[in-house]
Amino acid sequence: MSDNISSKTGKGILYIGGFEFPDKNAAAQRVIANGRIFRELGYSVDYLGMDRSFPKKQFLIKKENFQGFDYYNINYPVGLADWIKYLIGIKEVLRIASGIKDLEFIIAYNYPAIALARLNNWCKSKNINLVADCTEWYEPQGSLLFKMIKGFDTYLRMRVIHPRLSGIIAISKYLYLFYSERMKHVVQLPPLVDSMADKWKNGCTNNSQNLILIYAGSPGRGSKDRVDTILDALSKISIKSNIKFSLHIIGLTKQQYIDDFGAAYLPADLDADIIFKGRLAHNETLDEVKCADYAIFIRDNNLINTAGFPTKFVEALSCGTPVLTNASSNVTDYLRAGENGYILDNSTAETLVQTLEFALSQKKEKINDMKMMIKSANTFDYRSYIKPVNEFLDYIEGDRLNLKKL
Fold first, then answer.
1. What does the pLDDT look like over 364-403, one tens digit per residue?
2. What backbone torsions phi and psi does residue 279 show, to the nearest 5 degrees?
3. Is it true that domain 2-192+381-405 has CATH number 2.40.110.20?
4. CATH 3.40.50.2000 fits 198-377, yes or no
5. E strands along 18-163, which residues?
C-alpha cells in the first residue's frame, strides 16, 4: 500500500454536505472518520459544511481547522430563498474546489439532486471524480408541498443522479446492494470511529447489582427510535419478574417525552426507574454509555431505517457497552448474541418481552465479559477499512485515466 500512498500524496479531496463542524451532528462524526482514512492514504482533505450559528442575514464562508482538517462553513439555510439556493446552487462549492490544488475527488454527503447533477457536469469538464456518500433514503414528512419537493429530490438523487457518478460510499448493506446492481464502484462503510481518541477510552463498570440501561438519541414524535415500545416492554417485565433496572434516557426531558408521546405512554409503575437526562454534550453522553450495562434502542422496519445504519449502535460498541436492539438495517452482520449484545425480537409484544427479559436476566459477570470482548474486537475503528477504501478509490481513478486516454 505504500506505493499507492506515495502516488496519492499531495492530491486533494473536498468533502461537502450538511454536516455541522466540528462535531455538532452525527454527519460530522461520520465524515471526519472517513477523512482519516483518506488522510492515511495520502490525500489532503478539506470540508465544506454548514453552521447554524452564523448571522441569519449575512452570507459567510469561514475557514477553520479541526483535528488537522481545514473546513469551511456556510450559513445554514433559513427561509425559502436560502433553501432554493442550497437545493440548486453550486457557487460556493466551485469557489472552494477551484482553490484546491490537484483536486482528485469531491465527495458529496446526501447532497441535493439538482445541485449534485450540476456539480457532476462541472467535475466531468475538469476531469475530477464525484462520489456520493449516501447514508439515508429519506421518506418525506410535513406538508403536501414539502413532501412533493423532497420526494422528487430523493427520487432524482437516489435513482437517477447517483448511478451517474464516479462511485458511491454506502452506509448500509441495503444501499450497497442497491447501487452495486446499477454501477461499477461502490464501497460499504458503516459509521466509523478513531478508537485511539480519548473519548473512547476510560471504560466504566456498573458495580451495582441493579442493571443500568441507556438510550441516547432524539426519540421525539416521528423519530426513527421507539422509546415508547421499550418502556411498554420494561413495564411488563417489572411486573412479572424481580429484575432490578433503571433506564437512563438522554436526548429529551420527561416533559418533552409526554408532549411527544402522551402521558399514557409513560408507565406509572416505572416512574422511579426512568431517569430523563435531557440533551447532553457528546462526550458527556459517551461517558454515560460507558457506565451502562446495556445500550438499548428499537426501530421500526421501514425504508429509512433499512437503508440507514444506526450511529448509536457503533458508538455504544466503541464505548465497550453491549447493545440490545432489533434487527434493523444490517446490524445483525455485527451483533453476535452473548458476545456484544442481544437481538430483540419485536415481531410481537410478547416476543419483545421474552427476548428483552432474557438479556436482562444475564449475570453481571457475563455482561462484564461482553464488555471486555467488545473493547478487544474494535469493530468500527476506521483503520480496519483503509484497504477497501484504497481499492475503491484506485478503481475509480483507474477508470478515469483509461477514459482520458480514449
1. 999 999 999 999 999 999 999 999 999 999 999 987 666 6
2. -80, 135
3. no
4. yes
5. 44-51, 61-66, 69-75, 103-109, 129-134
